[in-house]
Specification:
This protein is α+β, with helices and mostly antiparallel strands. The chain contains 4 helices and 5 strands, in the order ααααβββββ. The chain has helices spanning about 1-15, 30-40, 40-60, 70-110; strands at about 120, 125, 140-150, 150-160, 175-184. It has a 3-stranded antiparallel β-sheet, with no helix packed on it. Helix 1 (about 1-15) packs parallel to helix 3, helix 2 (about 30-40) packs antiparallel against helix 3 and helix 2 (about 30-40) packs parallel to helix 4. The protein is rod-shaped and about 95 Å long.
């Protein structure tokens, strides 16, 4: 929050000290836009209000509050600050929904993709789940191990993943599911 406030302070001071035909007020909108990229809607609105107050101070110090140029700058700053505050709200809401979705997906995967036992009969088993994407902890992979009357059965599957695919299935097929079965 220090960068947007510092930007407001610098633009305000330079605008007051600048020659009468130089107007730096439009740069104040950058403070709200920067804040919206990382801050909460409340913080973005606060920075927007601070920018409007700074532009009001510039208007009073340089000419008057009713000056047409400053009136338009203040009005534009209010509108743009309101827009970026709304976008910050949408971004924050989207982040919350994505976090909740990941949480549900990870819990579902933990229930469905349980680690196999360390040993089935004479066979020792180990497994590890490595997602294709660095940030992803969920995916469309599956594996299972079971002891049957005929031996140990191992199933490894990849549902629409980035792994290998059968040669007769197009890579963009919505029904693609690669499953490999091995009886030991």
């Amino acid at each position: 929050m220090a960068v947007p406030l510092l930007l407001i302070l610098v633009v305000t001071v330079v605008d007051i000290l600048a020659p009468p035909d130089v107007h730096l007020g439009p740069f104040l909108v950058a403070a709200s836009a920067i804040t919206a990229s990382f801050g909460s809607p409340r913080m973005t609105a606060f920075i927007g209000v601070a920018a409007v107050l700074a532009q009001t101070v510039v208007a009073v110090m340089r000419t008057s509050l009713t000056d047409l140029n400053h009136s338009f700058q203040i009005t534009a700053l209010i509108l743009i600050s309101a827009f970026v505050t709304f976008f910050a709200y949408r971004r924050e809401r989207h982040e919350r929904e994505l976090t909740q979705l990941r949480s549900v997906a990870e819990a579902t995967q933990e229930v469905l993709l349980r680690p196999p036992p360390e040993r089935i009969g004479a066979l020792r088993i180990a497994s590890a789940y490595l997602a294709a994407e660095a940030e992803a902890q969920i995916g469309g992979d599956l594996y299972a191990v079971a002891r049957t009357a005929h031996g140990t059965r191992i199933i490894v599957g990849d549902v629409r993943g980035k792994g290998s695919r059968p040669s007769d299935t197009p890579p963009d097929s919505p029904d693609r599911c690669d499953i490999y079965r091995c009886d030991i």
